[in-house]
Amino acid sequence: MGLRPAIAAVVAGALLVSLAAADEIGNPQRGLDYAQANCADCHGVLPEDYVSPVLEAPSFQAVAETKGVTRLALTAFLQTPHADMPNLVVTGEDADIVIAYILSLKGATAAGVR
């Protein structure tokens, strides 16, 4: 292997690592702590809480399993007031950690967590 292919491989590896890190913004455990303190009155926030205390409020597990749910979609949702929700807008680091927690739930029921 010549020097150029080796450099290209290192650059490609670094790019993949940085792309993966960019998708891992926020601390899921802190997101769970935030959700339990601020969201659990209405939403089921644990993987096994598939039904929410307020039936109209989706559980975090159901949100995580919704097709097309991404960090960007959740960011837009959390920054937009909703008529049937309390006037709560989640932004900044709080949004990052809640989103990280919700995204960490993807596949939890398939893994037998539920």
Summarize the structure in words.
- The relative contact order is 0.17.
- This protein is globular.
- Helix 2 crosses helix 5 (92-104) and helix 4 (71-78) packs across helix 5 (92-104).
- The model is unreliable at 5-23 (pLDDT under 50).
- The chain has helices at 3-22, 28-38, 60-65, 71-78, 92-104.
- The chain has five helices and no strands.
- Helix content is 51%, strand content 0%.
- It has a domain at 27-104: Cytochrome Bc1 Complex, Chain D, domain 2 (Orthogonal Bundle).
- With 114 residues, the chain is mainly alpha-helical.
Summarize the biggest pleated sheet: none
Q: If you average the pLDDT, what whole number results?
A: 80
Specify the oligomeric state.
Answer: single chain
Large-scale geometry: globular
Helix content: 40-55%
CATH architecture verdict of the domain at 27-104 = Orthogonal Bundle
Distance between the termini: 48 Å
Which CATH class of the domain at 27-104? Answer: Mainly Alpha
Helix and strand element order: HHHHH
Approximately how much beta-strand content do the residues carry?
Answer: under 5%
What is the radius of gyration computed over CA atoms, rounded to a whole number of angstroms?
A: 18 Å
